[in-house]
Amino acid sequence: MNLPGFTGQLNHKNTGMSSGKKLLLMGRSGSGKSSMRSIIFSNYSAFDTRRLGATIDVEHSNLRFLNNMTLNLWDCGGQDVFMDNFLNKTDDSSNDNGSANNIFRKCEVLIHVFDVESKEVAKDINTFKRVLENLSKFSPNVKIFILIHKIDLVQSNKRQELFQLMYNNLKNIAFNEYGFKISGFATSIWDESLYKAWSSIVCSLIPNVAVYEHHLAKLIQIIDAREIILFEKTTFLVISSMNKSKSNSINNDAPLSNSLIQPVDNLDPKRFEKISNIVKTYKQSVNKIRSNFRNLILHGKNSSIYLDILTSNIYIMVIMENKMGKDDNYEIDNENMLTEDIKIARHLFEKIENKTVN
Amino acid sequence: MDKSIISNHNCETDSNATVLLMGLRRSGKSSICKVVFHNTQPLDTLYLESTTKPTTENFKSLIDLAVIELPGQLNLFEPALYDYEKIFASIGALVYVIDSQDEYLSALQNLGVIIKYAVSVNPKIRIEVLIHKIDGLSEDFRLDTQRDIMQRVGDDLLDYGLEGVQISFYLTSIFDHSIYEAFSRIVQKLIYELPALENLLDLLMQYSNFDKVFLFDINSKIYVATDSSPVDIQNYEVCAEFIDVSIDLDGLYETNNEDNRKKPTYSENTYDENRNVPEEVDNSQIYRPTKCISRLENGTMLYLHQMIRGLALVAVSRLENDDEITSISVIDHNVAIFKKSLEKMWEQAKLR
User: Fold this and answer.
1) Which of A135, A339, B47, B254 is the most exposed, fewest CB within 10 Å of its CB?
2) B-contacting residues of A 108-137, CB under 8 Å?
3) Which residues form a coiled coil (chain B) (predicted)?
4) What pLDDT is attached to residue B24?
């Protein structure tokens, strides 16, 4: 399998830089950058983030993600002193000693956080512009995500309007002046919106999403499930998902335009993030009895849900339709068959994972 | 004359299951009600207004529980706005809330007066004292406060000549699970069938290899019964969270047909009324009870099985790895038998 993202990673290794994808997390002081990082990658609860202090300069964290991927998260302190330092150092001294600590070099992703309550919007935008300017100079292929954060502080009926306003504004700036296309999310640490944003960010870095999706489409037809979702193990971010209508379109070789396909049964569009949120809370609470979560089988009123380990880095969640009115024996056989199917699928997905390493 | 007898009789029948919540103003009574029975987030209770008239929460579970909350700023012996004698005669338990972060001497004085009155009206009344808002106190100060309060209440009762009155004390806070624990114990005392239930759960535990088993009310996370082994608060918390997980996950994938409209809104008080709809259909075996199993890395298994009347059985079990499928089948079978006996017990209770 020839994967474009993979060769890029090799180059990093050759140049002697730390391998992996470099993510910059920027934004003004107090906008919630470190809180986000702690919730997604360090299992903090939203309540715990009150204890976090200000980030000094840059905090690096290396995160292994899906076995073969390393995320280098650079959490940049947001006080004016630090920001000026980042921005000016790169401008002037990139020729001599600057090249080693130039933080804008070889970036794959910029995540810029905007505090929705900020009083100095003009200054925030100005900083954002300067960051973009540096990036267009040093890493022009960077992917840019903006997060309008702390959206829970806005009245719920005004959130969408406010977000659109800010997002369109920033989008125009980024595209017209620097030629960057950006994606934006409204986020809050108090609900599941944070997971949605980070899930899209991380998915944009996974090289073989299409492979996963292709195999999931096959799997869903074999199992005859309503929906299958893949999660990364430690962060519980959604990697890939597949439901019945989507799998049909893939197998008919129709153009893969997800937005056009309406799911047959209009399920909650936020369900992926909600699942991430629910399961992660559960994982934390299980830690109280000094253990870790392994799997979960739920026979509910509406559907049967199987959540199990697929590979060493992936959890799989299969949602089966409840066969109403069928007798019990059928259901029991069904459960065993499904676990067997997942076992077989496990080998396949392990192979996909390992292939990208070598 | 006839009328009063009838109304008295009515009071008599549900007297077992009414809880009266009292305390000085701002001691946190309404917050407790909101958090326990309405699933309100503890932080949101900051914005509650002060209660001006007695409010009654009806709460259907294994027993039909009613919680009456009295406004705190009322002087009990003002020319009667309310018929205190009737209220006190009809309740099963009096819960008095003391704010432990505030100066509590006046609260204790008030409590003494109330106990004296309550016992004179209804000698069988159970008196429960919540030493509330302990989240703000340090660990060793909590015990000091409890000891101090117990001492003073005891002295007060001696002065009134009421040595024989049994009072239970609980340290509670709405920011952790202690308030649920306290309410669980209070509610349990009001369940007539409790010894039989505990006995059943003990048997179930013995034959199913459970470490701990709770009978939960799904809506409020109060456990109406547990086996006779000591309650580990951490086990309780995990079990309560486990109920949330299974209900939330199931709720995300509701089927899109007509019974959808009757879908119980788990967060609201109307939950129990709606709950009865699928329950009746349950007998015709269209709806199977919700069941959820989760395994943990250290071999522990969490097991949830829906029971009658909005109850769920949640158990913590340690399985041997070699024969998982059979042992789960055995558990399923045992739990089904337990459910049948619960149904029978409920039938009998209605006749009583």
Assistant:
1) B47
2) none
3) none
4) 81
Whole-model pTM: value is: 0.76
**b/e sequence B289-305, b meaning 16+ C-beta within 10 Å:** bbbbbbbbeeebbbbbb
Task: Name the closest residue on chain B to residue A270, using Cα atoms.
Answer: B252
Task: Count contacts between A and B (CB, < 8 Å).
Answer: 105
Residues in chain B closer than 8 A to A291 (CB atoms): 296-298, 300
User: How far is B285 from chain A, CA to nearest CA, in Å?
Assistant: 8
Name every chain B residue with its beta carbon within 8 A of the beta carbon of A295: 294-295
Per-residue tokens: B278: 């699928």
Q: Could you give all domains of chain B from N- to C-terminal order, each with its CATH number?
A: 18-190 (3.40.50.300), 193-252+288-350 (3.30.450.190)
Using DSSP, state whether A72 is helix, strand or coil.
strand
Nearest to B268 by CA among B311, B218, B208: B218
Helices (H), A179-269: 193-203, 209-223, 244-251
Alpha carbon A257 to its chain's center: 20
> Could you read off the pLDDT of B85-107 as tens digits, one per residue?
777 777 788 888 888 888 888 88
| pLDDT tier at A259, thresholds 50, 70, 90 | very low
Closest by alpha carbon to A177, among A129, A139, A144?
A129
Q: Which of A144, A146, A142, A180 is nearest to A33 (CA)?
A: A146
The residue of chain B with its CA nearest to that of A317 is B249
Torsions phi, psi for B227 (to 5 deg): -75, 180
ipTM of predicted complex: 0.74
Residue B271 is predicted with a pLDDT of 38
- Torsion, CA B156, CA B159, CA B160, CA B164, rounded to 10: 80
Cβ distance of B298 and A291 shorter than 8 Å: yes
Question: Among residues A193, A174, A175, which one has the least CA distance to residue A185?
Answer: A193
Instruction: Give yes or no for B274 touching A (CB within 8 A).
Output: no
Nearest CA in chain A to B290: A300
B245 with A279: Cβ contact below 8 A: yes
Under the banding of pLDDT at 50, 70 and 90, the label for residue A268 is confident
213-242 in B: which are within 8 Å (CB) of A? 234-235, 237-238, 241-242
What dihedral angle (degrees, nearest 10) is formed by the CA atoms of B242, B133, B37, B45? -110
Phi and psi (nearest 5°) for A89?
-55, -40
The per-residue pLDDT for range A60-108, each reduced to its tens digit, is 888 877 767 788 888 888 888 888 877 776 554 444 444 445 778 788 8
CA distances to B44, B217, B218, B220, B253 from B266, in Å: 18, 12, 9, 10, 15
Tokens, residue A181: 């296309």
